[in-house]
């Protein structure tokens, strides 16, 4: 296990290194730079040159990359070019919001999606199944911005209420934080719950046709035991894989919901950094997304062993 | 209250007349506090927090290196220059108290206001003023204002509260240039610290009515009242939270539910969604903004003046304005709406303003394009008005055989093309401070004195811009800029379409907020909460 973990972490480090190069080149391939954005239509060539020198943009690109990499390896992610704040602090603050959003969404989506999927599978072809399927289709087809917007406008018109627009961390006021997070979490969770429910339903239906289920039924094992002891355990591994994918998806792509509900999360930070060509923030933010995705994948792989001790990690 | 009422103590004509007599010794009497930023309120209550919703987040709060309008809107409350851009076009003394102008009109001796303190607590002196403006004008320091200050040859303190500014040629727009768009006065030596540029986003060192308390990217910027502010009794508000709300739907919902006390709308037509809502007040104010079509002469056949004129004759500005902002603005000719009265030429006195398809076709035929040609229009992603305007324009130009294709680009790409003078045929959206020299010179004077972004290279226009800049007599100056506008309308380097009005939506408990035509939030220095 320890050897496996060490190998995976080493492989992850190499992947992160390669990703850092790709990210570095990618952000620089977008036309325009921070100096153009700062000077705008008033651009003066001498001023532009001075600013390019200040930001090190006059250096050859390989020197810029290795300079940045050397600093990153000492945990120095630099300072935002436009906001003047330490990049690490900015990423950390944004990540805290997005992580809360992601885990709360995962929790709510699991709470809604898994029981609905089970219910549908248990009544395959019946009215309940058809209703759940219809709801799933609706959830999967509706774009997340539309769900968010409808919730926002609906709640506002119905209750003369809308979430506060200035984010408050849960450590400062849990109530305020929950009132800010409720609608964005619900918007994302409705979509993910539909995917979940569909996945769970399909997994159970295909498991029901397996020999071990037929054997258990033949042996007279109760439906409840078959369900919770055999079926759920067997679909647990694909379910955890699925949860991992959802988590990565939300962590890396919650920009629409964050923008709609004015949440200062990682997606919005990345978007604004692209607009301002704030390379230090953009590079660190994208690298954070890559590292998170790798860590989530690693955690998912390790969880296989916990779910099923027969699984050998190699 | 009209702008002329607001600035009753020194009116524009008086100031300009004084400028006209300036060859001897122009002295502007100290501005009364009520002149600045809007009227003081007789019945104001001090205290309280105001939440202002911003659709566009300032990319930073550094007034010395960041040109974005979203930055200027806020930082005018934090940093102050020597003069204030009053809506009627006069440069009113702000940190200056008045000035004397030498007989050759090359040396401004500026007396500074007494008792001004920086947010850091130090007293402001002439040394600080000289340091700050010398910093901006040295292009090596990377300030976007450097170009505007190129005519200054020296700035030096002569005593504790007097500074002498020497310029290379007479320039009637100098006081307006020493306004609040770029820079402001900061303590001498401020930029010697290695982290000075980035620190401006965390702690303010200006002299303005508000101090920066917090700047959280993607969340909010919070300003607090400057207790040591030099104007007695103002500002009234204790705190302003600028809340960054990146979409109009959330902003409008926030206004309805009183999460937001005041906001200006990026799309004027959005106002329909909050009109008539109890507790909300909607106000419409003129602007110094212009939505325009630029015609870069580097792109053939736009180098042919006949083609540019033909395009101008095919454009129905009113139809584009109605399609793109619901008609909530003013069609313009060669001057932004907020300056039309002071400096503009009536549209019916300008060539190429009225739609004339037959004349346009004739011009195209003369230019060798009897069947029209294919042309690509660039519009910027995120500028909503451009999308509707582009479709309308395609229809209009189709009538003279121009087959318009529309290319939407991201702002960074557009700025790069603009700066490298490769803008081609594009929409533009920009604003000015109220002086014709600052509006036209840099954009339209040929290089190297101006940037001539549209590759117009018009000698006659450049000569008139030089003349207008050096002339101090208001009547003669106006006449020069009238002639300049005639040249511009005739040759069509740009087609100024319309100025969109500022639409301010506020909770009725927010009082005495007057939206400045620049779009900057000066009015918050006079607003209060009932």
What does this structure look like?
Chain A: It is found in: Cell membrane. Chain A: It comes from Bosea lathyri. Chain A: Residues 95-300 form the ABC transmembrane type-1 domain. Chain A: It holds the Pfam family BPD_transp_1_N. Chain A: Keywords: Cell membrane, Membrane, Transmembrane, Transmembrane helix, Transport. The complex is a heterodimer of chains A (314) and B (530). Chain A is mostly helical and 314 residues long. Chain A has a domain at 95-263 and 290-307: MetI-like fold. Chain A is 78% helix and 0% strand. The longest helix of chain A is centred in the N-terminal third of the chain and has 36 residues, at 87-122. In chain A, 37% of the residues are buried. Chain B is an alpha+beta fold. Chain B has 3 domains: 1-30 and 80-191, Dipeptide-binding Protein, Domain 1 (Dipeptide-binding Protein, domain 1), CATH 3.90.76.10; 34-78 and 208-286 and 502-530, D-Maltodextrin-Binding Protein, domain 2 (3-Layer(aba) Sandwich); 289-500, Dipeptide-binding Protein, Domain 3 (Dipeptide-binding Protein, domain 3), CATH 3.10.105. Chain B has helices spanning 3-6, 12-20, 22-25, 69-75, 126-137, 174-177, 196-199, 248-256, 305-314, 317-325, 340-343, 357-366, 384-398, 411-419, 436-444, 459-470, 474-491; strands at residues 49-54, 83-85, 91-93, 96-101, 107-112, 152-159, 162-167, 210-216, 220-225, 239-244, 262-265, 280-285, 289-295, 329-331, 374-380, 403-409, 425-431, 494-500, 502-507, 510-511, 528-529. Chain B has a 7-stranded mixed β-sheet, with helices on one face. In chain B, strands 14-18-13-17-15-16 form a 6-stranded mixed β-sheet. A 4-stranded antiparallel β-sheet of chain B has the order 4-5-7-6. The longest helix of chain B is centred in the C-terminal third of the chain and has 18 residues, at 474-491. The radius of gyration of chain B is 23 Å and the shape is globular. The model of chain B is unreliable at 1-34 (pLDDT under 50). Classes of the chains: A mainly alpha (314), B alpha+beta (530). At the A-B interface, helix 2, helix 3, helix 5, helix 7 and helix 11 of A face helix 7, strand 10, helix 8 and helix 14 of B.
């Amino acid at each position: 296990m320890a050897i496996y973990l060490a190998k995976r972490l080493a492989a992850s480090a190499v992947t992160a290194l390669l990703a850092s190069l790709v990210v570095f080149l990618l952000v620089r391939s977008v036309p325009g730079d921070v100096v153009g954005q700062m000077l705008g239509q008033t651009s003066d060539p001498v001023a532009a040159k001075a600013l390019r020198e200040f930001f090190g943009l006059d250096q050859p690109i390989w020197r810029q990359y290795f300079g940045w990499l050397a600093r990153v390896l000492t945990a120095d992610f630099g300072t935002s070019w436009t906001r003047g704040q330490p990049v690490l602090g900015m990423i950390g603050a944004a990540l805290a919001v997005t992580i809360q959003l992601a885990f709360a969404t995962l929790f709510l989506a699991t709470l809604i999606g898994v029981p609905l999927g089970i219910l549908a599978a248990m009544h395959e072809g019946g009215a309940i199944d058809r209703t759940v399927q219809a709801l799933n289709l609706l959830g999967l087809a509706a774009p997340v911005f539309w769900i968010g917007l409808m919730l926002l406008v609906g709640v506002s018109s119905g209750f003369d209420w809308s979430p506060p627009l200035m984010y408050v961390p849960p450590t400062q006021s849990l109530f305020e934080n929950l009132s800010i997070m409720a609608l964005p979490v619900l918007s994302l969770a409705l979509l993910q719950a539909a995917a979940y429910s569909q996945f769970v339903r399909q997994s159970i239906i295909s498991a029901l046709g397996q020999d071990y289920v037929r054997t258990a039924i033949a042996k007279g094992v109760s439906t409840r035991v078959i369900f919770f002891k055999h079926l759920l355990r067997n679909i647990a591994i694909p379910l955890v894989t699925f949860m991992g994918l959802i988590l990565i998806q939300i962590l890396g792509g919650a920009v629409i919901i964050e923008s709609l509900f004015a949440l200062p999360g990682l997606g919005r930070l990345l978007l604004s950094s692209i607009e301002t060509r704030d390379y230090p923030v953009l590079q660190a933010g994208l690298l954070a997304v890559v590292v998170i995705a790798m860590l989530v994948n690693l955690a998912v792989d390790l969880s296989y062993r916990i779910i099923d001790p027969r699984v050998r990690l190699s | 209250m009209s702008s002329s009422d607001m600035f009753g103590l020194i009116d524009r004509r008086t100031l300009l007349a004084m400028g006209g007599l300036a060859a001897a010794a122009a002295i502007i009497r100290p501005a009364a506090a009520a002149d600045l930023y809007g009227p003081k309120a007789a019945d104001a209550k001090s205290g309280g927090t105001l939440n202002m919703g911003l659709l566009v987040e300032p990319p930073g709060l550094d007034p010395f290196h960041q040109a974005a309008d979203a930055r200027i809107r806020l930082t005018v409350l934090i940093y102050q220059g020597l003069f204030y851009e009053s809506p009627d076009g006069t440069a009113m003394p702000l940190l200056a108290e008045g000035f004397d102008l030498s007989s050759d009109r090359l040396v401004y001796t500026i007396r500074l206001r007494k008792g001004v303190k920086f947010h850091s607590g130090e007293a402001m002196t002439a040394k600080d003023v000289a340091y700050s403006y010398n910093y901006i004008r040295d292009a090596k320091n990377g300030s976007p204002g450097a170009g505007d200050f190129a005519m200054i040859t020296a700035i030096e303190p002569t005593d504790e509260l007097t500074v002498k500014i020497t310029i290379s040629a007479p320039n009637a727009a100098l006081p307006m240039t020493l306004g609040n768009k770029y820079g402001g006065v900061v303590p001498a030596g401020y930029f010697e610290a290695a982290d000075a540029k980035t620190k401006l986003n965390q702690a303010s060192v200006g002299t303005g009515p508000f101090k920066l308390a917090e700047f959280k990217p993607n969340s909010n910027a919070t300003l607090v009242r400057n207790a040591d502010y030099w104007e007695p009794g103002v500002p009234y508000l204790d705190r302003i939270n600028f809340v960054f709300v990146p979409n109009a739907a959330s902003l409008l919902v926030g206004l309805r539910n009183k999460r937001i006390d005041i906001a200006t709308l990026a799309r004027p037509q959005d106002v329909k969604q909050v009109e008539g809502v109890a507790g909300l007040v909607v106000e419409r104010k003129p602007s110094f903004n212009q939505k325009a079509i630029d015609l870069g002469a580097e792109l053939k056949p736009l180098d042919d003046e006949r083609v540019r004129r033909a395009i101008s004759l095919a454009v129905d500005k009113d139809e584009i304005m109605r399609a793109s902002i619901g008609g909530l603005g003013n069609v313009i000719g060669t001057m932004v709406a907020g300056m039309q009265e002071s400096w503009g030429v009536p549209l019916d006195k300008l060539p190429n303003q009225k739609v004339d398809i037959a004349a346009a076709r004739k011009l195209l035929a003369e230019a060798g394009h009897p069947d029209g040609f294919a042309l690509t229009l660039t519009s910027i992603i995120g500028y909503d008005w451009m999308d509707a305007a582009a479709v309308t324009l395609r229809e209009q130009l189709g009538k003279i055989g121009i087959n318009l294709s529309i290319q939407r680009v991201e702002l960074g790409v557009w700025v790069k093309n603009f700066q490298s003078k490769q803008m081609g045929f594009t929409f533009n959206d920009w604003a000015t401070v109220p002086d014709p020299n600052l509006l036209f010179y840099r954009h339209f004077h040929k290089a190297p004195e101006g940037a001539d972004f549209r590759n117009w290279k018009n000698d006659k226009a450049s000569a008139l811009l030089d003349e207008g800049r050096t002339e101090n007599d208001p009547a003669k100056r106006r006449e020069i800029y009238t002639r300049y506008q005639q040249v511009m309308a005739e040759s069509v380097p740009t087609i100024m379409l319309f100025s969109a009005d500022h639409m301010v939506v506020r909770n009725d408990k927010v009082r005495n907020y007057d939206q400045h035509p620049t779009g900057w939030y000066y009015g918050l220095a006079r607003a209060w909460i009932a």
